[in-house]
Amino acid sequence: MSAATVIDLRYVQFFDGGVDPDHDQLGGKCASLVTMTAAGMPVPPGFAVTCASYEKFVTDSGLASRIAEELAKLDPGDVAQVDLLSQKIRDRICTSPVPAEVREAVIAAWAELQGRFAEPVPVAVRSSATAEDLPDASFAGQQDTYLWLTDERSVHEHIRKCWASLYTSRAIVYRLKNGIDEEGLSMAVAVQKMVSARTAGVAMTLNPATGDRSKIVIDASWGIGEAVVSGHVTPDNIMLDKIMMSVVDEHIGDKHIELVPDPAHRGLVEVEVESARREVRCLSDDELLAVAELAKRAERHYGTPQDIEWAIDRDLPEGQNLLLLQARPETVHSSKPQEPKPVTATIGVGSLTSMLTGQIAQVRTHRV
């Protein structure tokens, strides 16, 4: 950071600032981004607006006590009541003043981040709740992400929208159904350089359908990965053997739309994908292997199966353009004990050849 920039580390912490990945201060997403950055993984730069910022905001504004009182009276089975309270809380969060100390810390961090580049860069503003991405309760998709923001004012506005998303009807009911206590619940926010993705998607270091940890499953589509994460497109779906790194099964998705930057409107637009690109896999063989290796690297680092988000940046040179946007523990199958695999009494050349022949015979390519 430049000598002229003074940032209050209680309220803002850079991913590469050498801070500890404190889950209580950074939430699941930002703690993961700090950890992956420290491990040398290709994470786009950015900073976290800490949970301390949110807590100072709701305490100084008096919102914390009011929200607690109203939630205590809530009947989670009354959909209309939940929706009404959710809207009321979110409106208050989006209109209450932010403490000067927090606002000044964000202003300084924004200037520092933009100062790292020759030209201004757009950012993504992403929620990072303290209850998300935990091994026993994944909050993936429960809070909000805002993409391609280009000015400081929008960043401030959308930080508050991320705070407010802690109290969507869906998030409130999710916590109630899963017995997650509101006391101590908090929200950090990631402000991260936006990736101009040519191709993006997700990868899991097991087969999500069966829990088979010997496989890697990759979903990929053209453009920004939000279309894949939100389910708006049918992506390419490729399964690889984790050891051999060979394709075991492949489905070419329709990929009918993509999200791409629109410089004229300083944002993203949804455009139709031409038929020629719909019919081919959106990852080359080399890119496919690189994504699989990145997923394996995240799994080795964390020591448990991972669900990662990745993107290939159209503006970076080949070999440096694969970026890791998020890694979270897979929560459905990872907590289950692995079944012991049968051991063959004798494994000779004939047995090994038979095994490999069987693997090759299983390789299939489908189009959907």
User: Which secondary-structure class do the elements indicate?
Assistant: alpha+beta
Strand content: 15-25%
Domains (count)? 2
Estimate the global geometry from the Cα principal axes.
globular
> Biggest sheet: strands, sense, closure?
7 strands, mixed
The CATH topology of the largest domain is given as Dna Ligase, domain 1
Helix-strand pattern, N to C?
Answer: EHEHHHHEEHHEEEHEEEEHHEEHE
Helix share, percent: 25-40%
Strand order of the largest sheet: 13-12-6-7-8-9-14
- Identify low-pLDDT runs: 133-141, 341-368
CATH H-level superfamily of the largest domain: ATP-grasp fold, A domain
Number of strands: 14
Arithmetic mean pLDDT: 87
Cα separation of the termini: 49 Å
Radius of gyration: 22 Å
Number of helices: 11
- Supply the CATH architecture of the largest domain: 2-Layer Sandwich
CATH domain class of the largest domain: Alpha Beta
Description of the molecule:
- With 368 residues, this protein is of the alpha+beta class.
- It has 2 domains: 12-193, Dna Ligase, domain 1 (2-Layer Sandwich); 197-336 and 350-367, D-amino Acid Aminotransferase, Chain A, domain 1.
- It is 35% helix and 23% strand.
- The chain contains 11 helices and 14 strands.
- The protein has helices spanning 23-38, 51-60, 63-72, 79-95, 100-114, 152-164, 169-177, 226-229, 275-278, 285-302, 349-362, and strands at residues 12-14, 46-49, 123-129, 145-149, 187-193, 197-204, 215-222, 236-241, 247-252, 257-262, 267-272, 306-313, 322-329, 364-367.
- The strands form 3 sheets. A 7-stranded mixed β-sheet has the order 13-12-6-7-8-9-14.
- Strand 12 (306-313) and strand 13 (322-329) form a beta hairpin.
- Helix 3 runs antiparallel to helix 4 (79-95) and helix 4 (79-95) runs antiparallel to helix 6.
- The termini are far apart.
- The model is unreliable at 133-141 and 341-368 (pLDDT under 50).
